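Quick one: sequence plus adenosine-5'-triphosphate SMILES, need structure tokens.
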Amino acid sequence: MTKIIAIANQKGGVGKTTTAINLATAMCSIGKKVLIIDLDPQSNATTGLGIASDKIKKNIYNLMVSEKYSSKYIYKTIIPTLDIIPATMDLAGAEVELVNIQDREKRLKKILNQINEYDNIMIDCPPALGLLTINGLVASDSVIIPLQCEFFALEGLSSLMQTIDSIKGSYNEHLEVQGVVLTMYDKRNLLSSLVEKDVREHLGNKVYSTIIPRNVRISEAPSHGKPVLIYDVGCTGSKAYIELAKEVIKQQNGE
Amino acid sequence: MTKIIAIANQKGGVGKTTTAINLATAMCSIGKKVLIIDLDPQSNATTGLGIASDKIKKNIYNLMVSEKYSSKYIYKTIIPTLDIIPATMDLAGAEVELVNIQDREKRLKKILNQINEYDNIMIDCPPALGLLTINGLVASDSVIIPLQCEFFALEGLSSLMQTIDSIKGSYNEHLEVQGVVLTMYDKRNLLSSLVEKDVREHLGNKVYSTIIPRNVRISEAPSHGKPVLIYDVGCTGSKAYIELAKEVIKQQNGE
Ligand SMILES: Nc1ncnc2c1ncn2[C@@H]1O[C@H](COP(=O)(O)OP(=O)(O)OP(=O)(O)O)[C@@H](O)[C@H]1O
Ligand SMILES: Nc1ncnc2c1ncn2[C@@H]1O[C@H](COP(=O)(O)OP(=O)(O)OP(=O)(O)O)[C@@H](O)[C@H]1O
Ligand SMILES: [Mg+2]
Ligand SMILES: [Mg+2]
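Reply:
Sure thing.
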């Protein structure tokens, strides 16, 4: 039974793409077979995994419009058990084009129901609560929320939780928050520990004990088209994502 | 003659809101009268200037829908010559609601044409190239692009430039890129200087010589509802924004 996880947060630059790429890679290193869906017109997950946009003939936009899934949409990555359905700039038009289409919130769900060769499907959402992110949440079993340890990021958490609740109430009653992961944590910065304390008080064990530190190797890796686990497996960033993967898999097994 | 500037970049978390708030404040400290338009449903510019969302009766969403401007939409901030038209979560619905409305790209332009008591109007755009950002670009004389010194941020620059060109070609022939400002620059991080070198090579004098350093005081200031220039005027972040304001004003005077 494929478990579908949305990586979502409407606040920009909090580590959604970085978490999708590196958590997926870490789960593959522990034996899972994972498919990433790049649902962001910026296509950062696609280029962060080394797939050049000029090589892409079939992408998630064509699929959302045609709804006819075929394995031609699946692209291999440098990790044997990690595949991706890539995005291109075409996707930018989807927000407007989907508005007047029947079942506009369920297009992605209908597609992902046809794919079952993976342990997990991970959806990298864009920084907005528009129709693309809504499609991602409607198609998912659960949501992992990357939360940057900064004031503006913390502010946006409650409206994200409200959106998740309203999707649960209307289109996807099974949708759960699988967990919140603190990202870009800087030990030298008081703000990081204040945000951590605040979030653990309000959300308790919904917050993963693993924290992703701010680590320059993480931000260098995408320019080499590689996950940080391949670029520098010994760095603190890689170790943190491996720990996070262990926590996520333990959760999934315990369910 | 009010000059309208959009602060735009579809990449998330690159410093759009931080630049809108602090550049505007710095320009006020040099004698300008500035109005900020918060065009992001996250309303970070509104809370970053200390305006609580429960105090807001009239916001930019009501204005985009009704198009009847009145000074009731203008909210004062702690800086005497800096005002704001705030945003609330209502704005999240605008992307979908605007799609089937006449002149959907020009709603904001029609509103801002009715306001002329300011030297500058600065529009804080959301992290997307959807109808809200398009309204911001159509309404503006020029665009300032905050660019985080990271790989993913650099990648997105070309599609932003393409979008600006297509707006210039269809709805707003005067639209110019006023400048690109490098943000969150970290001297210890090789990536920052690589991005700087790359951008200056490609864009030449479109890139401001002032660089905004990564500075923890900048990220602490919004939790106090203040611009960094008020929170800690002597820090490197404040000094950088004052330098940037001088460059921007020199540009405007030279035009
Ligand atoms: N733990 C980390 N340490 C250092 N840099 C990081 C870390 N996590 C992410 N980054 C960098 O921060 C930037 C933002 O991260 P990322 O692009 O993954 O966020 P996002 O939420 O996907 O952004 P968007 O909202 O634009 O989709 C990127 O340049 C990334 O390389
Ligand atoms: N120069 C800087 N030094 C340190 N922190 C910064 C700097 N500029 C911005 N920040 C912090 O980085 C985060 C992202 O900045 P900001 O929210 O302004 O970006 P944005 O582009 O407006 O994001 P969004 O795409 O979500 O609208 C914020 O928490 C902000 O406080
Ligand atoms: Mg992303
Ligand atoms: Mg912002």
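Chain B touches chain A at residues 10-14, 17, 41-42, 44, 47-48, 89, 92, 95-96, 99-100, 126-131, 148, 150-152, 155-156, 159, 189-191, 216, 219-220, 222-223 (CB under 8 Å). Residues B 16-17, 40, 44 surround magnesium ion (ligand 4) (CB under 6 Å).
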